[in-house]
């Protein structure tokens, strides 16, 4: 006999994961698949997406991939509708896809960098949410998780487009948590810190180690799956009273004095 009444299983639920071809998105898609969820894996990178989908299929899990440009509103709506038709609904949305463009504000290419960054990192979240909302509203476990960054809690030199977008993701999360609260739809946010992904591959290992020793309480970079577990926790049926939360998954970066 169980002593608790809330489920910690996502088995059978449909999750839509953006940026699933690599890094945290890949880890998220694989983790949810391992836990029995039906995974709609979405990415602009068709080759990487096919690899991830193939690996999930080889493990005997339910998955299908869609190549998608999140800057195209009509395509976002079309793909979300296809996902819901294919899997018979849509329960959980993980807005993970991202880019990183740093530019000084007085640079000649600043405005294009600003426009592209805000479009992919913030406006795209609203596109997927608006398209998915009719299906999420019908779910018994309606969950939205937005991936921001510790840049949404602080700032880095020359990173104003990225920092502004990530602050915006946190604001969007909190606002929608209030907006959807009466419907039982939870909206939460993850703020990853230093993670070993494609965005950090170019940083020399020695620099990673120095940075981690100085800035991170746990003294290391994280594996992408460690972030994915934070995302999964927000999507559990048992997490029904968690909404508007902003969770740093950063090894203690944001609490450690320099």
Give a quick precis of the structure:
The chain has 258 residues and is α/β, with parallel strands linked by helices.
Q: Can you offer a commentary on this structure?
A:
- It is a single chain.
- The chain is of the alpha/beta class and 258 residues long.
- The chain is built from seven helices and seven strands.
- The protein has a seven-stranded parallel sheet, sandwiched between helices.
- Helix 1 (23-34) packs across helix 7 (224-235) and helix 4 (110-136) packs parallel to helix 5 (160-180).
- It is globular.
- The model has no long low-confidence stretch (mean pLDDT 96).
Question: Which helices and strands, and how do they pair?
Answer:
Elements: E1 14-18, H1 23-34, E2 38-43, H2 46-58, E3 63-67, H3 73-87, E4 92-95, H4 110-136, E5 143-147, H5 160-180, E6 186-192, H6 205-215, H7 224-235, E7 246-249
Parallel strand pairs: 1-2, 1-4, 2-3, 4-5, 5-6, 6-7
Helix pairs in contact: 1-7, 3-4, 4-5
What are the salient characteristics of this protein?
7 helices; globular
Number of helices: 7
Distance between the termini: 49 Å
Provide the gyration radius in Å.
18 Å
- Strands of the biggest beta sheet: in what spatial order? 3-2-1-4-5-6-7
Average per-residue pLDDT, rounded, comes to: 96
Low-confidence stretches: none
Structural class, from secondary structure content?
Answer: alpha/beta
Helix content: 40-55%
Form type:
globular
Beta-strand portion reads 5-15%
H/E series? EHEHEHEHEHEHHE
Strand count: 7
Q: What profile does the largest beta sheet have?
A: 7 strands, parallel
């Amino acid at each position: 006999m169980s002593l608790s009444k809330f489920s910690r299983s996502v088995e059978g639920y449909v999750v839509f994961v953006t940026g699933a071809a690599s890094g945290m998105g890949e880890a998220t898609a694989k983790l949810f698949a391992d836990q029995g969820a039906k995974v709609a894996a979405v990415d602009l990178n068709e080759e990487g997406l096919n690899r991830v989908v193939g690996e999930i299929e080889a493990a005997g899990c339910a998955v299908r991939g869609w190549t998608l440009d999140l800057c195209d509103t009509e395509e976002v709506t079309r793909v979300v509708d296809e996902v819901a038709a294919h899997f018979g609904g849509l329960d959980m949305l993980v807005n993970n896809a991202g880019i990183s463009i740093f530019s000084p504000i007085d640079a000649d290419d600043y405005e294009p960098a600003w426009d592209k960054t805000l479009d992919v990192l913030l406006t795209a979240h609203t596109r997927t949410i608006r398209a998915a909302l009719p299906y999420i509203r019908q779910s018994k476990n309606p969950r939205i998780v937005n991936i921001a960054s510790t840049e949404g809690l602080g700032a880095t030199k020359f990173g104003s487009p990225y920092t502004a977008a990530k602050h915006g993701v946190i604001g969007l999360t909190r606002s929608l948590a209030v907006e959807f609260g009466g419907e039982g739809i939870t909206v939460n946010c993850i703020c990853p810190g230093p993670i070993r992904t494609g965005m950090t591959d170019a940083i020399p290992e020695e620099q990673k180690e120095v940075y981690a020793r100085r800035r991170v309480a746990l003294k290391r970079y994280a594996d992408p799956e460690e972030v994915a577990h934070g995302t999964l926790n927000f999507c559990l049926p048992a997490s029904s009273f968690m909404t508007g939360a902003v969770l740093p998954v950063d090894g203690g970066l944001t609490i450690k004095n320099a």
